[in-house]
Write a structure and sequence with these properties.
Elements (H helix, E strand, L loop, with lengths): L1 H12 L4 H25 L3 H9 L3 E2 L2 H6 L3 H4 L7 H22 L1 H25 L11 E2 L3 H14 L4 E4 L3 E4 H14 L6 H22 L6 H13 L7 E2 L4 E2 L21 H14 L6 H11 L3
Antiparallel strand pairs: 1-2, 3-4, 5-6
Helix pairs in contact: 1-2, 2-3, 2-6, 6-7, 6-8, 7-8, 7-10, 8-9, 8-10, 9-10
Length: 305
């Protein structure tokens, strides 16, 4: 058992591993809740488990939300069903690795968190504004990372619309068509039994699209979140002892929340020869053959068009 915890801890502390960290957080929460559910059920205290889940779910009712505002964050790290978390994490992994490669770990976190928050706001807003849902407001609650995962998926599809995934039985499909299919599916199911979840998908999808479009025009919606992450990292980071010499003092610090890999804003603007060389490499070997720096240079060049 200790070996499993060691593996989790090792994966979580690796650098350039932000996507895996997000997946691990969701997985650990899922497994912890599953264990708690078994313990409470065997102890004939199932009502305690229901109370715990209610503290993590996002309610549609504004009155309930005021009492537990943290649920706007906790709901998109919480799952109860195995296939729910499995689909969400696979979806997140497939598209998240593209965002991580081209835009860096900070922007992957921003897409995930902002998409989850936007999905929650869309869910509460639509349930309270449209008469069709008024009768369900008091009893409706939501959990799951679908909205956050949709934000990452649509963000990747907006950034790299012609990138292809090889799907079983279907072959290579451009990711813009995959994202479009799931958006239409969510819209079609917005009056079904999981209406709240599907409405949240649309909020997350819209956020992912706008995040990339604004980023391409020079506006980064994630800047307030980056500042918060940096503050949080410094607040809980232990200061290592200073190494003192007769000339200077050296302080070495390591980031604990996200990778410090270069972002597109720190990459120098490539000249036309570099761009042509990158495009030639793509035509010969595909997007996957590009290095992280080449991908970020290509994105940097696209912002100037």
């Amino acid at each position: 058992m200790s070996g499993i915890f060691d593996d989790f801890r090792r994966e979580f502390t690796k650098t350039d591993n932000t996507l895996v960290r997000i997946i691990l957080i969701n997985t650990v929460v899922f497994l912890a809740l599953l264990l708690v559910k078994v313990i409470f059920t065997l102890g004939q205290s199932s009502e305690a488990y229901v109370w715990l889940i209610d503290m993590l779910r996002l309610p549609a009712s504004p009155r309930e939300f005021v009492v537990k505002p943290w649920t706007i964050i906790t709901y998109f790290f919480t799952h109860e069903e195995i296939f729910h978390i499995l689909f969400n994490m696979l979806f997140l992994y497939w598209f998240g690795r593209l965002v991580d490669e081209y835009l860096g770990s900070k922007r992957l976190i921003a897409l995930y968190v902002l998409g989850g928050i936007a999905g929650g706001i869309a869910y509460m807003g639509i349930y309270n504004l449209l008469p069709y849902f008024h009768s369900q407001v008091a009893s409706s609650q939501m959990l799951g990372a679908s909205a956050a995962a949709f934000s990452v998926a649509v963000g990747a599809s907006t950034l790299l619309p012609n990138y292809t995934f090889n799907l079983i039985f279907l072959g290579p499909i451009r990711i813009k068509y995959i994202a479009f299919f799931y958006i239409v599916l969510s819209l079609a199911q917005s009056i079904g039994p999981n209406a709240g979840g599907n409405l949240a998908h649309l909020g997350g999808a819209f956020t992912g699209y706008m995040f990339i479009k604004l980023l391409q025009n020079g506006t980064d919606l994630g800047k307030p979140l980056y500042a918060l992450m940096e503050f949080w990292s410094r607040l809980f980071k232990k200061r290592p002892p200073m190494k003192v010499t007769y000339r200077q003092k050296e302080v070495h610090r390591t980031s604990t929340f996200y990778s410090a890999a270069p972002s597109p804003t720190s990459v120098e603007m490539p000249d036309q020869d570099e761009i042509d060389a990158i495009l030639d490499k793509i035509s010969k070997s595909g997007y996957e053959s590009l290095t992280r720096e080449e991908k970020q240079k290509l994105f940097k060049a696209s912002q100037q068009k």
